[in-house]
Amino acid sequence: MGSQGGFGQSKEFLDLVKSIGEARSKAEEDRIVLHEIETLKRRISEPDTPKRKMKEYIIRLVYVEMLGHDASFGYIHAVKMTHDDSLSLKRTGYLAVTLFLNEDHDLIILIVNTIQKDLKSDNYLVVCAALNAVCRLINEETIPAVLPQVVELLGHSKEAVRKKAIMALHRFYQKSPSSVQHLVSNFRKRLCDNDPGVMGATLCPLFDLITIDVNSYKDLVISFVSILKQVAERRLPKSYDYHQMPAPFIQIRLLKIMALLGSGDKQASENMYTVVGDIFRKCDSSSNIGNAILYECICCVSSIYPNPKLIESAADVIARFLKSDSHNLKYMGIDALGRLIKTSPEIAEQHQLAVIDCLEDPDDTLKRKTFELLYKMTKSTNVEVIVDRMIDYMISINDNHYKTEIASRCVELAEQFAPSNHWFIQTMNKVFEHAGDLVNIKVAHNLMRLIAEGFGEDDDNADSQLRSSAVESYLRIIGEPKLPSVFLQVICWVLGEYGTADGKFSASYITGKLCDVAEAYSNDETVKAYAVTSLMKISAFEIAAGRKVDMLPECQSLIEELSASHSTDLQQRAYELQAVIGLDARAVEIIMPSDASCEDIEIDKNLSFLNGYVQQAIEKGAQPYISENERSGMLNISNFKNQDQHEASSMHSLRFEAYEFTKPSMPSRIPPVSLASTTELVPVPEPSYLRETQKVASSPSVSNADPSELRLRLDGVQKKWGRPTYSSSETSTSSSTSQKTVNGVSKVDATGTVNSKAHDNSYNSRKPQVEISPEKQKLAASLFGGSSKTDKRGSTVGHKAGKASSHAVEKPQTTKATVKSTAVEKIVVQQPPDLLDLGETTMVSSSPPSVDPFKQLEGLIEPTQVTSSVNHGGNKSPDLMGLYVETAGSGPSTDDANPLSGLTNSAIKNAHEGTTTQLSKGPNTKHSLEKDALVRQMGVTPTSHNPNLFKDLLG
């Protein structure tokens, strides 16, 4: 802008920008901005300020907000500027309010009318400014106010207006899909727009729609392929080129859409093969945008139904990426390789040396991406090498978040592909030792279960060797200075169960180690509890074997210390240990049998063996047991009726329902005289908790109450206490949410494979003078050696590792063979719908609904409410249906047979909201029950002699 005051700005504004740019500290910048705020507050409130000056003040306010300071005192002036007739001032006002306000701001309501007027303007620049504000400021409640004008602008003569209208509709769909669901077909029609910019803008909402429901857009595959072919052949104007690439962002979006449409669909994928192959051949890889298109092509090839030629082309591109000196391209190559090996696992073997180099690269981001690739290509032949490298990397990093992820992956791979139980235990020891606090506690339980169950076969020697090796390894590890708490729990449990089982170690030696652990980790009560229990097990096993137990002095002091502990759990364990030592061998053998950790223990939760004692106590006058939910006052409202029957049998129990009206005393054989249903009682002042109790008792039986029963009508009484009812908006949102079929079809295995010999992609061809070290060749042979065709992920190992994985933590991955077979079944059974007609699809089903929603409302709300809801829907229907008719196709409608076809979704939604509001009225039950419980603590019991005793107490 220079010293000329460019763009019509004053010298003050230019000096402000210059002084802020020259500020040497944040404090100096804040001082300058605060001084500017005071100046603007004074000048912007002056009367008769010229419009040119006000425009500059608004721009300076925008600058203040950009620097993080509050300029809310000028928001109203920016809103006023949007009403100005001058194009420059109006666009400045719209720019300011879109930066100042959010969709929930209180001032939004002031500019809705202005936006409606500007959307109908003859000047397309004004319309574009209004559409920009629509995308930024219109919320879910104000969408209906501007929706008709936005839909009308889809046919505007200016392509810029049509493009912004598509963007506004896309924004509406993101905020409230139900409000524009009937306008979805407009996106299909705009796909055929003459302007490439409008067509490219339409791809964004179509991508979101296809992501949710793929099958409804299968008929557009031919259209997308045709558009991509025209773009790749440079038929678009030169203005859409970027770095000499024809409309690259449109190409990328089309490839993403085609990847969704071709997933698991052979017929749709066959239409894409030619155009994707042409892009592989014609795309220039010398620029970043060209490499981005090639990467998206690889993602598309890995998603659609496999084709050998396309997989071969993708493998060549991946080879170029991995051989590049750029870390970004290497990263992209590793990621693309991880996607492609799901379809063709043989490709990883062609790039084994490049993967090894990336694994040893100092770039940590590239190394992490390489570990993700190795995780995807793990099998039983290379699991040992991959897990060892992952553990070494886990030890070297300090990021706990990523260390947790690496540890969980190591555990998952070890449980799924472990070649032997011994290796599995050693691997788990390493993971627990270096990341024990970050591992899920279930993993420790699975490890203990594996050691206890052994191989699961009738091979006692193998099981004993497994346990012996575990004990020896833990005795070596226990001397480490600092071990995780979870790992120490596993160590104590194993030493207690099997420390003296094979006779290699004496009981005194094991007990000494356990006492050392309890002393070293005295602040960890869980570890001390495990150690004391292990001491009790060893002592019990010694007593059962007939050997004398000599307690070490450190064990005696530990028991004495825990006997006086503040923890009741540790106290009980210490007393149990002392009690077990004093028993004879036969009793100890019964209560703590040897090697019985896997035995099922039957627990009588109801304590049925005490039934006789309880019955005798009740006969002597003892009170019956009160359940926990009754004690806490959380009794369900639906149990109130059942309590009436319970009171007839036991007159001493408390009643938790509302009090009934006093009925005239008469013989039970004579039915009571029914009062007129129109009788109303005038509500009188009474204690608040009594009124709430009556409302709670009457709320669950509104629909099935006897009309002759006399009850209070408290609909008009203001509720002052109690928990507020649930808002109907949440209920209506959940009830009106429609379920859509999501394409869950997975990729199917390729029938053909890639001939790896057909490629000359030896990694050392780029550097023939460098000799590959034998260590790297050996590592590559370990990672990529072995047949990858026959070894499928998820295969079980013949050893105990398979059994360990059955007890392991639930994994998010499913067996691919199962998914693929399911995908094939879905393709065979489900025929894609015929959507060749680009006319608008109807949103109301032609078949009558199985359940009439208005029948369900009968008896729940008053007839006047039902009538008002229907009338409301009928009155609102012509406006929205009129929009629907304007864009409808020429085909006849199939909804005439449906009596509810003229009813909009909003009417049904309002009806449901009314129902929900009626059902959710009334105070919370817990408050009433707590007040009744307070009275119950006074020790008063209602009897047949004085039924109104509680009423007297409550006033």
From TrEMBL:
Keyword terms, alphabetized: Golgi apparatus, Membrane, Protein transport, Transport
Gene Ontology biological-process entries: intracellular protein transport; vesicle-mediated transport
Highest taxon of source: Eukaryota
Location(s), subcellular: Endomembrane system
Family: Belongs to the adaptor complexes large subunit family.
Biased composition (Basic and acidic residues): 708-718
Polar residues compositional bias, start-end: 695-706, 752-767
Clathrin/coatomer adaptor adaptin-like N-terminal domain residues: 41-581
Organism lineage: Eukaryota, Viridiplantae, Streptophyta, Embryophyta, Tracheophyta
Predominant location: membrane
Protein name, per record: AP-4 complex subunit epsilon
Species of the source: Acer negundo
Subunit structure: Adaptor protein complex 4 (AP-4) is a heterotetramer composed of two large adaptins, a medium adaptin and a small adaptin.
Pfam family, one: Adaptin_N
Disordered: region residues: 692-813
A GO-annotated cellular component: AP-4 adaptor complex
Functional note: Subunit of novel type of clathrin- or non-clathrin-associated protein coat involved in targeting proteins from the trans-Golgi network (TGN) to the endosomal-lysosomal system.
Low complexity bias locations: 725-738
PANTHER family assigned: ADAPTIN, ALPHA/GAMMA/EPSILON
Keyword Zinc: no
